[in-house]
Amino acid sequence: KQEVTQIPAALSVPEGENLVLNCSFTDSAIYNLQWFRQDPGKGLTSLLLIQSSQREQTSGRLNASLDKSSGRSTLYIAASQPGDSATYLCAVRLRSNDYKLSFGAGTTVTVRA
Amino acid sequence: ETGVTQTPRHLVMGMTNKKSLKCEQHLGHNAMYWYKQSAKKPLELMFVYSLEERVENNSVPSRFSPECPNSSHLFLHLHTLQPEDSALYLCASSQGTGVGYEQYFGPGTRLTVT
Question: Which residue of A89, A98, A103 is in closest CB contact with B97?
Answer without folding.
Answer: A98
